[in-house]
Request: fold
Amino acid sequence: MNVSCLPLQMMVATRKGLACTRAFGRPVTSWGEMREAVAAYAHRAAEKLRAEDLEACHLAVFMHTDPHAQGERYQHLQHAARIEPTSDSRDLIAEAVRMAEGLWRDGLRYAKAGVVLNDLVPAGRQARLFATREPRASARTMAVMDAINRQHGAGTVRPAATGIARSWSTRRAMLSPRYTTHIGEILRATAF
Reply:
């Protein structure tokens, strides 16, 4: 006799929160680089929201120094706030950068930063009694941007605030090949 230990789940539970965080490839010491990084993480988090047809009502931004660095005191800085429900990259970037600017301390060597979105609700279903944004225009703009990026590759169109060179980006020297998702990295067999 077979007895199921796990109940059958007919519908996947709606996500309650999401985060986009990364350790930097080298310590970040300038506000311009941190602003770019926070903007890039907010944009990526917004893309994830739109892919699941969700909007965020709560935003948190954090940054911290290396806890293992010799001779430096560990600093973890964070700010969180409720926001008007949105999945618009531009709105999330503006809010995240504003929060990060209040956290920034000159002279610190930051090792990691991130954007965390919580209190997620289905897109367009949250009542907005005193809305300050135009949700339909925002949805159309983001849909066009997402369509272009789907057709021509991720990052083809993105907000300028996310940076061009991204010198702060994660190191990728030890990145595993993408055998199953990138045609240029498929394993090749040769016969002798």
The chain has a mean pLDDT of 87. The beta strands are 17-28, 54-65, 76-86, 110-122. The first strand starts at residue 17 and ends at 28. The two ends are 52 Å apart (CA to CA).
